[in-house]
Design a protein that fits this description.
The mean pLDDT is 91. The protein is globular. The protein is mainly α. The protein has helices at 3-7, 14-42, 50-77, 90-112, 121-135, 139-169, 173-186, 191-211, 214-235, 240-244, 248-269. It contains 11 helices and no strands.
Length: 278
Amino acid sequence: MDGKSLNKNYIFNWKGALALVGGMLVGSSIVAMINVFSMFVLKENLQYKDFYLLIANAAGFLGAIFAFDYFIVRPQTGRKLNFNFSPTNFATYLLIFPMMLGMMFVADFITAQIPIKGPFFGRFYDYFSRLMEQMTNDKGTLILLAVVMAPIFEEIVFRGIIQKGLINKGTKPWKAIAISALVFGLVHGNPWQFVGAVLLGGVLGLVYYKTKSLLLSILLHAFNNLVSSILIFYGHTESFSESFKVSEWLILGVGIVLLSVFYYLFMKKYRVHYSDHL
């Protein structure tokens, strides 16, 4: 490998987007064909089996990541796709987790303002609720899917590939963070998760940009999803105000304070130590 290839970084453009979408479709199609075979030959529909849900999710993301690596990264850089998963100093974790919790409180308030009744929102909310209920009732499967698999795969795609690829292309960091966060929100496919996903993507993108480590954004993403899962399991709602029987405005106020204070400390007052690996 020559020195020039070592200095090349992959970029994200329409070809990269096409590779991600195409790879996800191929990966998902392969698993779907296995289910078709099972239905016709074995007379069993695997679609709502817990293990099938996990395999289908993994196949889609792995297909997307492989396609981006093979068709974009290797031709552009001469290297395989790889990421930095380095840990950072302990004090950094004491800043980013309260900041994340503050974001979650703010997102909770904003999401609560989106209607769940009416001619449009009511039908859409009912459809979305039924769709989520059909996925699985097994807590172990949900935890594995939401707290382990989703943070790893989604951070690799949205922060490690899209955000970093845009920055490598010359996009201003704040724009790259905003674009990846917006796309992250849109792929959730409904207005109630959109707000939280965009804010989540913004914080995760900021942390990844500053620390250069996907490990931190993965841990924060897992923390967010774990808290949401616990609220659903034991409170049957993702709302903090409903779970703790407190005012939405109190949740918003605490959220703004946590987010503002720890954002300031993280960005302005504390020097993060990391080692950046291409």
